[in-house]
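#onboarding

Welcome to the new folks! Below is a worked example of what a typical request in this channel looks like: someone posts a single protein sequence, and someone else replies with the predicted structure as tokens. Don't worry about understanding the tokens yet, we'll cover that in week two.

Example request:
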Amino acid sequence: MLTRNQCLKILLVEDDLADATLIEDLLGSFSEAVFRLQTVTSLERGLACLEAEKFDAVLLDLSVSDGLGGSEDLAVLKARSPTVPVVVLTDSNDENTALSVLRSGAQDCLVKGRFQRTLLVRAIHYAIERQQVEEQLRQQAIRERLLGQMIEHIRSSIDAASILQSTVAEVRQFLKTDRVLIYRCQDWASQFDGEEQKGAIVAGDGLPDGYIENQNINAALAVSCFFLLESQSVQAIADVNAAALSGSCKELLADCEIAAVLSVPIWQSGDWETANQRLEGSIWDAEKNQYAAENYLSLPAVGKPHVQGKSAPDLERENRNNLWGMLTAYNCSETREWQQWEIDFLQHLANQVAIAIEQSQLYRQLAIANQKLQELATTDGLTGIANRRQFDRVLMLEWRRLAREELPVSLIMFDIDFFKLYNDFYGHLGGDDCLRQVAKAIASCTKRAGDLPARYGGEEFAIVLPNTSAEGANIVARKICDRIASLQLPHARSSIGSYVTVSCGIATAIPSAQQSPDILIRSADSALYQAKTEGKNRICHASKPESSAILM
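Example response:
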């Protein structure tokens, strides 16, 4: 706003000498130099003056000789200098003319010969003040729109690195400052993007080569972080040389080419660390119990835990805000008086960044947990291969796919011979070890990505072989039997040999959309039953009546 006795620089665009002289007299009849008036006789010269110098206001005659006439002259001037307030001077005492120029951007309209010095001075002052208010409102609308866009971008992304980098780039462009960066404080012990980082610049825009690795810069940033932590406030320094800083701090900032600095803290609540620990504990519990893992999938989101044996003040101290880092803007070549709206803007943005970081961290932990839980839900805990649930799901998917493509699918079912006797003799731990080694042998013989070895139940295993003929399945089955035989796992209670053997049943079919894959399972199971009743340690095909014994 205007200050008392402020000297205002006014541009008068007037080609009538008498009118120009009158206005010069009106504005020059002050004891103090309140106005500095510069007069030009054409619109073209007026536009040139506005480009070359800064004026507080323009007095524009709508009837200059080189003008377009009426409000069109005003439109040309406002297009070239939209923030300069304009008071129109006209010969016409016409209400429509006045309304037209006001709609075109003029702050006032005066009729020549009908105003005195007081009215002219008041019109100039009001024009300047209204234009300033309009410009402030316009800038505020721009800031709010930009802030809204940035917040929307932050909330729509879960990639912390992308959020931080786009934030510093947009802040630097909007504030028109030399450098903007986000620094992560060195006393934060959690993890960021999968690896522990302490005292590091995690995003920056306008930073020269080697800036991030510069030890002096990191030292200066660490000092700023300490200030934010101690003061619980922002750090806004308009002039580093004139600031109340220690000599070493000034030297450090000067070495980093920092003339003015604005830093706002990025806070995170202590609840995040507690929730993260609780989440990890839940995952560990789920690992110990496969069925608990299934139940955990339906649990609500992790909330603020209740800790027994601790009072409310204790919990409040534990959950107080922690300084994650700071959002910092620098001017390198010149000082800068930081405006309150700039501080508010960065603080609001830092709050949104803090939320985004916490969401990204939690999402990453949940993604890891979901992946782990998915593995637990589809993998047999003892053998490490697919479980029955995963077997059923994959067989159904392959059945439907191969039905559309009219291609065959084969199923091999294995059963360890005399496994109950093995368990009774070697104990359950020995039995578990036998199951693991057999499963490993089966998995090692299935190389294609689509093949699925699974534990079907107890000592029974199965392999889904998409797009595989009966001959191909027989080759795989023999290979697996040979591999198990090569292990030479002792079996003292087997009546057919000294080592562990398996019986195999094979079924092959071209799936049909009208049939269920259960028909394939029944066929393979029937072939397996035939192999066991005919003496075990052999392969039987559902499509062939004869069996094929495995010679040891």
